[in-house]
Structures are given as structure tokens and as C-alpha cells.
Amino acid sequence: TIYNGVYKLLPGSILKISKSNIDNNDIPLPHLYWSLHEVAMNGQKNLFLGTTDEAQDQLECLLTQSISGQMISDVPLGAFLSGGIDSSTVLALMQKQSTRPIKTFTVGFYESDYNEAKHARAVANYLGTEHTELYVNDKKAIEIIPNLHQLYDEPFADSSQIPMALVSELARQHVTVSLSGDGGDELFGGYNRYLWGPAIWRRIYWMPRNFRAAIAGILTSVSPEAWDKVFSGLNIFLPKKLCYSTPGDKLHKLADILAVKSAEEIYEGLIIHWKNTQDVVKGNYEPITKIRLLNCSLDVLNLEHNMMYMDSVSYLPDDILVKVDRAAMGVSLETRIPFLDHRLVEFAWSLPLSMKVRDGQGKWLIRRILEQHVPSKLIDRPKMGFSIPLDSWLRGPLKPWAEKLLDESRLLEEGYFNSVPIRTMWLEHLSKKRNWSYHLWDVLMFQSWNSAIE
Description:
By secondary structure, the protein is an alpha/beta fold. It has 22 helices and 7 strands.
């Protein structure tokens, strides 16, 4: 952890503390009782050989079994609903097993580019749930931001923590336990990077790196906002699978990875915010993590499964589940994750890639299950994620708060950061030259946490 002498128990581990540990002041060593690496390797070496219909039936059976067990509760129970594939599938199978309408909860935004509430409402109406939604404006965000450090205990910089905290607070007013659809993306290829990464590498690996760098320069010479305007005019002519939210940011992200040396570097390029941290954090060194240890990836042929595995052992436990658990437990709400039942995870890793990613879409098998319960027109749209209009909020209502934490004299006095690159990004962001909201949020969350503990 960020605190000296304090450690976290890793997922799937158990820690035995003996009297001798205490007497000798020894730190006991954890050991694994369940290994995702072993599960994934065994699954890919012993692939499911049945038909797609058989795979679909078995997956639905396992998911139904998991949901059934997690619906056992002596207290009121509900579900988070974004209107996306995973949460809608969980909800459909919950409602199928319930004799009364399931209580569902979602957060919406007044900014249409970020608002999934209307889609969630459509799914809820079709399934007949008891639906509650909360629309969030910048004032509501400002109210909760000063309390984020109390929820997360450490600097935590996933900006979707804001809607997660708000939807948890909303749900707790009605239920004590809530199910979510987390884990589906990592298991069944739901993130856009699983489509982008391999597709990009297949198209660029043969090009000289200098040529790729020149293309990157052309892409970044146009601001993300300008690219968004270009694509907004083209969307009516493009197929749905090519219509992405915030396309400008994605093109700039593409530019960041065009000069990679290998396929493995694409994953890091797609997920990283600050490429040269030594230029930003004083006296820093990159810690050895699973992301930087390439031998931690799977020994399989396809890049997609390697990326899914790396997300499952890093992004999922260190970001997604932290975000959900801390936000929910901060209001005494218990969350349960049906997709992470170990039997379902083990089956998912035995499936061939073609049952997860097909025809330019992820979660192919999950979609087939959902289409048996919800019309495809209600869920067939570009993936948005749990994003918020952070870029405009930082230029508007959050600007005074951010300016105080990013003040140059303050950065110099505290001594953690080099102020020049941060101030440059901040000014570029304010002028709309670039959207640096995610990079800045990393620094802002550290600054906010550090201010609270001083």
C-alpha cells in the first residue's frame, strides 16, 4: 500500500499467522488457494469442444446458478443497471427467478454523450423492474469529491468513482445488497482495446517505426474535440460497430501506441496515462508490477486472451472491484458479483476466442444469452463504460478546486511533482487544445488525498 509497513492480501490468497511469526516479528507469507493463471492456462490447453449452442446453454446455466446463490438474502436486494450487456444480462436472469420486480438503480448525466440512463430505463421497463435513477449535475459531483479520499483510503484515480459512489448511495436508500455485472468484460472480451489492440498490430507491425511516428503526429495535430465533430457528421454513414463515443480521445490514444516495438507493448500503451512518469514524479522509479512483467502473461497465441488475462489480474482487482467495494461499503451496501463465481470463470477460460470476440464485437456469447430475454435493439449500441463529463467539469465548476490543488507554488513546495508538465497540461486542457482530464485526475486524486492526511 501507499503506507509504509501496511500490506494487502492478494486475490485468491490466504495468510496464516503463527505464534512464531509474532514472537519473531516476522511478516507471514501468503499462499494461493486458487490461481487464475492456472485456471486460464488449463482452460486454453483444454478448450471446450461443444457447439456454440451447447456453450451458450452451459454458460447460461452457470450464470443462473451463480445469480440464484447470490440472490439469497435476509435483507432487501437489488441490482445496479447501466443498460449495458453485462448488467442487463444479470438483471434479466435475476428477474426470471424472482416473483416480484427487482429493484434497479442507475445514474444518468444531463450531457447526452455520457448518458446511459435512458438505455437502462428502456431495459428496466421491458423487464418490469422497480427502477430508480439519479441524474447527476456538476454541483452533485462537487459535493462528493471532497469525500472521495475517505472512501478509498489511498489515492484512487478512476473518475467513474464519482457515479459509483452516487449510485451506491442511491441504492442504499432502498436495499442492503446489490448485484452488479462487473467481470464480464475481462472474461468475455468486452473492452474496446481487445478489438483495437490486435487489429492495430496486424496493420502496423510491418511498417517502419519512423513512418508510424509520422502518422501519430498527424493524428495528434488535430484536437480530440475537432475529431469528435468530424465523426459526429460521419456517424450517419458508418455502421454501428464503427460508431464510438469520444472518438477524438480514442484517435489520440491510437497515436500513443503506433510506435510500439511489439504486440505486448500495445496493451501497456492502451491502458497507461502517463508514459514518462520520471518527468512528472520527482525521484520516482517504476515498480515491478504484473503489467511490466511480460512473463506474467499467458503462453497463448492470441493477443486478445493475453490482454484479458492481464486485465483480470490487474485492472479488475486493483481498479474495478476496489471502486465498487469501497463506494458501496462506504454507505453500508454489500455488493455481489455473479460473473466472478469460480465455476463460471473456469468455464469462460475454456472457451475459444471465437465464442467471445466475433464480427467486430466482444462478449458474443453473452449477447446471445441476453437476446433470449431482451430485444437486441435495446442493447445494440457502442460501449460507453461508466464515464463522466470530467473534461468539461474541470474547465467549469471543478476549475477552482483543481486550480487550488495544481497551483504551481503548491506543487513546488510539496515536492512530489515536477510542476512544469502538469501546469502545461492544465493550461492546454483549459484552452481546449487537448483533453488531459484523465492525466490530471491522477494528480488531483493524489493531491486531494495528501491534503486530507496532512
